């Protein structure tokens, strides 16, 4: 009806969240900055609140859908980067349980937690270790090595008992790690166990020895004989299998000084055989430690221990003994020359002209020293004889 007042519908009452964020607005800032700040806080609160309902979903399909939705909401937003990393990790865990290792690995590689300033050190390490584990599960050893280098081993030696420094003004506030994140010593053990899997692929026995040595040095392992005994046995086995060089000799002597070896005398004897200048009978050695080598699951290929043994001591044919000897010469593990028609092996290195001249110089020096001593003795005897004649 003309002239009647126009009434507008009543406005809805704003939600409490609106009042919550409206009270934080600094009216001195530009309006766009205030709106963006409120929007960021709202998205952060929304994602954090929704993450609490993941475990309450009625079925797995709904859980996956909720995680994907929250993941898409938090994608590309720095202020919820930690929440997105945790969402990706949970989704990758579900894929791993479904035996979809490749999909789980691809999901985890989308996130680079090493750049997150607000994430705790232990949570970063745990996330990277999960990435490495999935790469090893899918036989992607190159990417596993690249990811493992993001972790510095020096971080495991940090003193966790020291109080944390209070953040300075402008520094990122580090959030608390979730309760399921392992402690730093436990992360150290997991890291070296994964590296053992990696080095086993290449049969790098010396590096595997170093990994077990690092695990052996963890306080919780060192204090429990039930834990350090199997680790020390593996240390001896892999040090025994390592190629012979000055490094192995040095590690042998330092390992033999460990007092705990007295509790496993068989393995102490195994290492002593390597530092003793005597021939080891292969069949006797294999019979004594056969079960230990066969029970070890980390060996990649057959053992194929290449040692300086003659054919009868190796219990092999002459062709096999010659092959092992040739492989060692090619790898420069030893110096040898085989006279096949005569059946003689010479282990003396061939000297070049410089070596021959040096040996001559050394011989001349010794000769001149002997001549000088002889002259001194002759002169001494002459003086004694002259003194006796005067008397």
From TrEMBL:
Q: Which domain of life is it from?
A: Eukaryota
Q: Which residues form the 26S proteasome regulatory subunit RPN5 C-terminal domain?
A: 354-386
Q: What is the lineage of its organism?
A: Eukaryota, Viridiplantae, Streptophyta, Embryophyta, Tracheophyta
Name assigned to this protein: PCI domain-containing protein
What InterPro entries does this protein's entry cite?
Answer: PCI_dom, PSMD12-CSN4-like_N, PSMD12/CSN4, RPN5_C, WH-like_DNA-bd_sf, WH_DNA-bd_sf
Q: Which family does it belong to?
A: Belongs to the proteasome subunit p55 family.
User: Which terms in the GO cellular component ontology are assigned?
Assistant: cytoplasm; proteasome regulatory particle, lid subcomplex
Q: What UniProt keywords are attached to this protein's entry?
A: Proteasome
- What Gene3D superfamilies is this protein classified in? Winged helix-like DNA-binding domain superfamily/Winged helix DNA-binding domain
Chain ranges of the PCI domain: 305-348
User: What range(s) does the PSMD12/CSN4-like N-terminal domain occupy?
Assistant: 39-164, 184-223
A Pfam family hit: PSMD12-CSN4_N
